[in-house]
Write the structure tokens for this entry.
Amino acid sequence: MAGLSGIGFSGQMHSAVLLGRDDRPVRPAMLHNDARAHLEARELGERHPELAREVGVKPMAGFTAPKLMWLARHESEIRAQVASVLLPKD
């Protein structure tokens, strides 16, 4: 029998899993490739130009903060239910 030659794992990031107070999802996850928050990402970059320098990357639509901004604007009733924000790997 051959010995162990390797172990692998992965974790998806930059997708928002939004949970309510009961630790259950309040809506389907907003995945990393969801680009609907492109205006919010641009706005975040314009309002906070120091972000790119401080965190090493400019705000992009697939990141969590622009998604939460989009949610507040377009699904405010859902945003009001959010108690926790997790990444799928969490």
In short: The helical segments are 38-47, 50-55, 64-74, 76-79. The chain has a mean pLDDT of 93.
